[in-house]
Amino acid sequence: MNGNLFMGLFGADIGLKLTPGDAAALMAVEGAGPFGPAGRPMGGYVSMPPAMVGSAEGRSWIDRALGNVATLPPKKPR
Fold this sequence. Notes:
Number of helices: 2
Number of strands: 4
Order of helices and strands: EEHEEH
Distance between the termini: 17 Å
Radius of gyration: 12 Å
Structural class: alpha+beta
């Protein structure tokens, strides 16, 4: 979204860029966790619980991530 990543893959994990409040809410769901390598997770991203993948609930979290990143300014090219 305008050069900003709202969702990514790391291995089998799907990570979502969420607002701090949404990130805290998703982290409270069983199966959610930090996103990225164990020693260096990506800040601001949360791994979606595997049970949500492909579900309507999972899609609603993806929509939240997209909505969050849509509010960010466009990323400037390097």
